Amino acid sequence: MRGNNLLVEVVRHGESTWNARGLWQGQADPPLSETGHAQAAALAGRYTAEHIDAVWSSDLVRAVATAETVAAPFGLGVRTDSHLREMDVGAWAGLTRAEIAERFRAEWDAVAAGEDPRRGGGESRRDLMRRVRRAFAGIVAESQAAGWRRILVVTHGGAAREIALDALGLDVEGMPAVRRLAAPANTAVTVVAATADALRLVTYNDTSHIADVRPTALEA
User: Fold this and answer.
1) How far apart are the first and last CA of the chain?
2) What is the structure's pLDDT at 1?
3) Which residues are part of the catalytic machinery?
4) What are the pLDDT digits (tens) for 162-200?
5) By the 8 A CB rule, do 9 and 149 touch?
6) What is the CA radius of gyration of the chain?
7) How many C-beta neighbours within 10 Å does residue 51 have?
């Protein structure tokens, strides 16, 4: 059983240099772009009048830099967890959609058809789902045990979407629904309420703190 009620603000990192170029990243580690730093600053401004007890992040630099920008005004350190990383897309990393479709046609067509292959020899969506949901459950349990009321978790598009689907009660059997849920934009906020025995999705893909959001692909 979980402890006290907890609000978790799940955030996708700011735009990276590879996002700006339309390159799929997976677990590659490019830094934030200029736009990404501006988005992170706007995100920090969203919480100026709020209280945050702790900040967690994927250990990839684009997520850590976003998290540190928000955490700094609160005097908080950033707790990193590699299990919050984006899907490992293997050999797809560093390629555009067109390049992936050309070089990995069978895998690309399988994904388009609703199948779940390991992308580029990396992870499947089922792999991502299991990894991220285990990590998120651990963060929630630790935060509730500490008596915290509001935390920030900075992660990636695919990981944030898996957390939202978990809160909606959808697992791998709900894969068709997964395909209809758009990935969150850069620095978009998804709020999940964790109560004594359940998760509940409060908001998804809230970008009200930034005026210019570039659409990006799930793993891009």
Assistant:
1) 36
2) 37
3) 13, 86
4) 999 999 988 765 555 555 688 899 999 999 999 988 999
5) no
6) 17
7) 8
Locate all alpha helices (DSSP H) within the chain, ordered by sequence.
17-21, 34-46, 61-71, 97-103, 105-112, 125-145, 157-167, 175-180
CB neighbourhood size of 123 (10 A): 24
CATH of the domain at 40: 3.40.50.1240
Cα diameter, the chain: 51
Q: Domain count of the chain?
A: 1
The count of residues in the chain is 220
Using DSSP's 3-state secondary structure scheme, residue 152 falls into strand
Amino acid identity, position 166: D
212: buried, middle or exposed (CB in 10 Å: 19+, 13-18, 0-12)? Answer: exposed
Within a domain: residue 105? no
> pTM for the whole thing?
0.93
Which pair of tokens denotes residue 168? 């909606």
| 3-class state of residue 15 by DSSP | coil
Local structure of 218: helix, strand or coil: coil
Residue with tokens 């991502």: 128
